[in-house]
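> call design_seq(struct)
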């Protein structure tokens, strides 16, 4: 991967590169999915694009098709884990709870959730 697509200080770039261990759920040329280390549901998976974008709006502006692929991958994960029901969260901005500034979809599934 070229320098322009990786941020050396970014935790999720390092996970994608295999420099930090993770429990892989799915991988293809563009996407990587892995279990959240601090799960908030029975199944809590993070889906990230391999290319670095800071947040979901940056990704949507640069590559909306890839954002669509992330949503469909979330659906796949939930189809396998919990008859297709899931919660999909993109925390965006520090004050909304974003702590890693490499866009990631939280896929929460595997159990009935409160409204
Ligand atoms: P955010 O708060 O940015 O929306 O979500 C970051 C998520 O990354 C959190 O749910 C947190 O538990 C998870 N996380 C932070 N560090 C690691 C790590 O090293 N490995 C894994 N698998 N998840 C991490
Ligand atoms: Zn990154």
């Amino acid at each position: 991967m070229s320098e322009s697509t990786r941020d050396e200080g970014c935790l999720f770039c390092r996970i994608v590169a295999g420099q930090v261990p993770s429990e892989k759920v799915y991988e293809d040329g563009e996407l990587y999915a892995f279990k959240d280390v601090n799960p908030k549901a029975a199944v809590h998976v993070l889906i990230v694009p391999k290319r670095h974008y800071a947040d979901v709006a940056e990704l949507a502006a640069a590559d909306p098709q890839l954002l669509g692929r992330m949503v469909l991958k979330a659906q796949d994960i939930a189809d396998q884990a919990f008859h297709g029901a899931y919660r999909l969260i993109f925390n965006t901005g520090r004050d909304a709870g974003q702590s890693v500034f490499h866009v990631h979809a939280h896929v929460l599934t595997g159990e009935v959730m409160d409204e």
